[in-house]
Write a structure and sequence with these properties.
Helix content is about 60%, strand content about 5%. By secondary structure, the protein is mostly helical. Helix 3 packs antiparallel against helix 4 and helix 5 packs antiparallel against helix 6. The protein is flat. It starts with about 25 loop residues before the first helix and ends with a helix.
Amino acid sequence: MDDTQGSGRPQLDASYPAPPDYYKLFTDTNIQRLADMDHNEAMEDPELKFLAVPPPPKTGSYTVFGRMWQVCDQLPTLAEQNITQLYPDGPIDRVAELKRLNHSVLFEFLELVDVLVKDPSQFSTCTERIRDVFVNIHHLINEYREHQAKETLKLMIQRQIDSKRQATERTLAKCKELEQTIEQLKREAADTKDEISTAVASEENQTDSTVQGNAEQHIHTQITQDGLAKILEAVQGLT
């Protein structure tokens, strides 16, 4: 939709622009007519074309609040911005050109000070030249944006890879620690079983099987509690 008022005058680029004149066409009658009409027919109607949703632009440019925007997001040339290019075309040393333009800013500023002293009415010419220099500097810097985006993306991916690698290494270390703990518990269980057998054999006066069963159950319970405590401590280290 064209960003102009019904009178053909463009809207002002203001913080709170006035609504366009065609807002008066959004009546209940026109809305009903639009609902009963084909989209192509509505676009040809002098009133309903403002109510019909236009197709999204695919090429060229469009205007929003008095500012021109490109459909394809790309860096416009200085010529498209009506700015004088202060560096040569073709392959150039951008660092050297930026330094040269930086010196030009200082020179133009001194010229502006001299003009303000001698003939203040001519200051606008100096300010325009300073503006052109700054726009050229910004344009050269903006040409690095694509390279900057690629390098930033590479850095983000590398950080993610490093973080996942560190997390994997910590997990593997804890898994190894758990395996060692389990092996230690197995050895302790085997040693305890031998101690139980020895203790039972040495008790010549105790032939009651109930006493032996109680002793084995007590020792087994103690081993299980100690083993679970060690495993739980190792698992908590993973978090």
